[in-house]
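[User] At your convenience, examine this fold.
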Amino acid sequence: MADFYQNGVVTTLHNLSRRPTEELEAELLRFSQKRPMALILPSLFSELEGEALPHIVDELTNVPYLSEIVIGLDRASKEQYQHALKFFGRLPQHHRVLWNDGPRLKAIDDELMELGLAPKELGKGRNVWYCMGYILASNRAESVALHDCDIVTYNRDLLARLIYPVANPMFNYEFCKGYYARVADGKINGRVSRLLVTPLLRALKRTLGDNEYLEFMDSFRYPLAGEFSFRRDVLNDIRIPSDWGLEIGVLSEMHRNYNHNRLCQADIADAYDHKHQDLSLNNDQGGLSKMSIDITKAVFRKLATQGQAFSNEMFRSIKATYYRIALDFVETYHNDAVMNGLNLDIHSEEKAVEMFASNIMKAGQSFLENPMETPFIPSWNRVTSAVPDILDRLLEAVEADTSELLG
């Protein structure tokens, strides 16, 4: 059972009583009369053929309070899109599948690309961004949740606890970040969060001194969680990265746009496991290696916007400080694992730390060499200012795809 301790500057909503899912859902159904709710599911077609997503859909068929489910479908042919329409067809809620690789949505993307307003990279960030645009276009929801499609431990309680803080009309939260213990199959997972993000934030605080942004980021118990919820108005102004810095970038945008008392994090699952990325020790363009570089650059970019100057010498100091702190964390997590009867391989943990330390320098060098690099996707406010009818056309394109290919 969780404790009730509040750490950092962001409110933590704990799971203290194991409240029944049906009780939470009954409240959410009442809330939906004032704050209609939607869910975004960014998906690859391959996930339809995995073990996680079919179970997630099974769970969602029993969720009574959602007004809309928006599925972003990547890497799908026409036949695969038609299969996806049938796959999600058993959902009782109003739902739409965005065929991101289809000619209609590609035409919209090409038009925005010519104006410098489209996502520059393929991936989850682009998928989520277009789903957010559809939510704005459909105007069916006031509160929106987002979670991944590869959660093998999924149950609908996760969604209820995730969306509750932004759905309750008595709460004033604009954003909620989910957190959980990454423990599965007798071992502790979540290496990038445990061994890179937290030690890096602590190293930056030690190197740069007191910094309100670093304190904010260090308040989140699982900063890389792909599960979060928000009020609809958040979607207009948010600028999200298109690379692996998505989760860090979203938190940075929340820090920029809202006071801390409008943000929270919630304990949404007792157990959580999903698809694992390779460490990619010898390839910094893939797996956790590329992820670590993108995440580190996202933090450096945010600090630079606050006036922080960086140099090679400073990056070397940050790396050295990080390395010592991260090695101490390896011992901490090992002891935690032993006490709980779990496995944790110290050798593989330290290999990960060594790679992350090296990638901090690579991220720093890349930052210095490309100071104008902007992986952020423009806000929908900017896009609609440039192309006023774009949301209507996005909605029409999705409806046309659905009606043409559903049969």
Q: What stands out?
A: The chain has one domain: 11-405. The first strand starts at residue 11 and ends at 13. The mean pLDDT is 93.
